[in-house]
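Minutes, project check-in

Agenda point 3 was the complex the collaborators sent over. CS summarized: two entities, 742 residues total, and the question is how they sit relative to each other. Sequences were read into the notes so everyone works from the same version.
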Amino acid sequence: MKPGLPWLGRREGTHADEPQVFTDHIRALGAREPLESPQFEALWQALRAAVRRELKRRGLWESPPAYLGVYGGASWEPAGGGKSHESPLEELVAEIYTYVFVSRLRSLQAQLKLKPNIEGLIVLNIRHFLHERQKEHDPIGSQVFAVVHSAVARAVEDGELRLLAGSATIRNDTVLGFEEGMDYSGRGRPGIASLVARWNDELLPDLVTSRGHRQEEIVRRLRERLPELLREGIGTFRFKDLIDPLKADVRARWVALLELEQGGSVPQAEGEEAGTVRAVDPDRGIEERQLFRKLAECVSQALAALETDPKTRGFLAVLWQFLRMQAAEGTEAQPAMRLSRTLGAELAAGDEERPSHRKLSEQLRIPRDRLPHLYRTIGDLVQECTAAISGKTAVKSLKGRFSHDEGV
Amino acid sequence: MTKGSDSVSPGYPRRLEALTALARDHAAWSRAELERRHGQPAGPGDLFVLPATADLPVEWAVLERRPGGRGKLLVVPADTNPLAGTADVEVRENHPGGPLSLRCRFGVWLDSVSFDPDLRSGVLAPEAVAEALDRHRQVESGSLAPSPLAEEVDADPEYREWIREVPERARTLAASSRPVVKRFSSFSWGPAHALAAMFALMVIGLSLQVMRLSREVDRLSSPVFNVPSVGVTLGQEVRGGTVVQVPPEATHVLFILGTDPSLGLQNGYLEIVRRSGELVWRSQRVRLPLAGELPLLVPRKLLPNGDYRVQVYPESGFSSGPLASEPLRVETAE
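CS then shared the predicted structure for the full assembly.
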């Protein structure tokens, strides 16, 4: 069985005579001599290879680059050759270089005071970058992963599922089984797709919209369904065999909904024109993400403090999580602006029922006639929070100020 | 600046040159900051790396000195994983020492001599120290203020795994490490005298340490027979608590720990604290078996006669207070 955190294994397996291109680069950045071009070329190639490897490991190589906030291309590398330095992969590598070798240089140099080599730590930082980006730009995929991972881990702790092969911590390649010694044939598990579609009939929208402390409940509900795999004749499976069809089914249902709501398209792996990569200025990207995080924190806190009945609070929480995800997913880099635009369109429509509400009501399980009021409440909160943030008012000052009664 | 950078990754040389220059600016700024603190003893705001946690990707942030001196510093582990839960404080990228996540749930008091001035690695702004100290106190008092987004991070399995594998292990390693004294006072002697005295002290100190360790190894290499034992099941009603009568010659006490099924716990943390609240021992996150299935051998010297509490905490951690707490008195048997 492989060790839990992979950098441990990597560090233990690293010898003094192995190439240390990342470590050497960190040392060179701390020295005063100019960097040699061949060394930099070697560093760049090694970084590109490491990023490509990690994208594949996380199952992101086949996904649209927009899932990681790189816009303008349908795949990581141009299919017919083209200028590779303009590819989304190259754009991502440049961002990762900044994240690791510029922003975290001090911390990495600190580790060099005690460690002869920090190759594994560079890979670890690449993973942190990808995880953070995926959470921000692929909130549906990240959320489904978190719930399924927790439910499976719970079943392992309870002794119902066993880790049969692969990583000791649950990863895509981990083989799980209901009994010790069961064989995994390695042919995938096509039967899982129809089973998880039935689960999703019951688990959505909570599977996607239950966050924070509310997530526990949906983890429990999914955990209770896992024994159905065995009843369907699936005694062993890779974690990937379970998570991939579950994600695909959720996406299939939600992508249609998101498209309908925003009147545009969300990232698609296929059928998208490959164009010039839009290089988002990393500093601007960070600012926009921080602004959206502050806004999300503020609105979530205000919703929690809202004086209303539990049912309405539940509807508001579900709709708010949907709007958050809708703003973060997609082909645009400005989630806060996107959220404002969606809410603006809803508020402009007033109490008039919009065609998209029917589908939304079905998927979110919110009565259709309540949607306009719910949108208005969230719209008010977003406006108040935006004003508070831009005016540098303390976010906490908004707590408890909202009181929406039955009119919601 | 790169030499001959035209050949580097066509299309990007200027951008890469700019990035490299930026990285070097950061490095120079950090170096200057460290040089300003050179030779000063460890104090609040300092970041250090510790040999005891060299296997982990952490630094240690000093938050405060123990009131009344005694050379103890409150420190928390800090790392570059950007996931920050309810008990963590984020130091942003454009702030001194950042980006870092200060893991305030895992604070520990360490001897100031544990911090080698040569291993100082950075400096935090006073505001970040104040925020981290406040967060640490909230954790300790169980009054942590909820934050919706941080709660989402708490539920993230990658975050949970990180916390378990890195800051939690770091605290255990740091708390069990012994400080290595590297600095000696030279009074007003000349350098040669001071050096000679240093060597003499080092030789004496090392000899004593070696003798002590040698005795310890000899003692621990022998079987420990007839260890006094006590069963503690947390969550059961026990009137008046448990009394352990330890024979005068006993070197260890064996605890057989467990939880009552009524608690409904599968995983959690166990700890033993003195009546004053001072920590004697704390487990990592463990699977909690039913009554009497988890043995713990504690050296008698960690358990002087007195009153203690054996406690169990839920999987979510220490912020919500113990789920069950069992009073325990340790006495020397007549």
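Noted in discussion: Chain A has three domains: 6-136, 141-254, 282-398.
Follow-up: revisit at the next meeting once the mutant set is ready.
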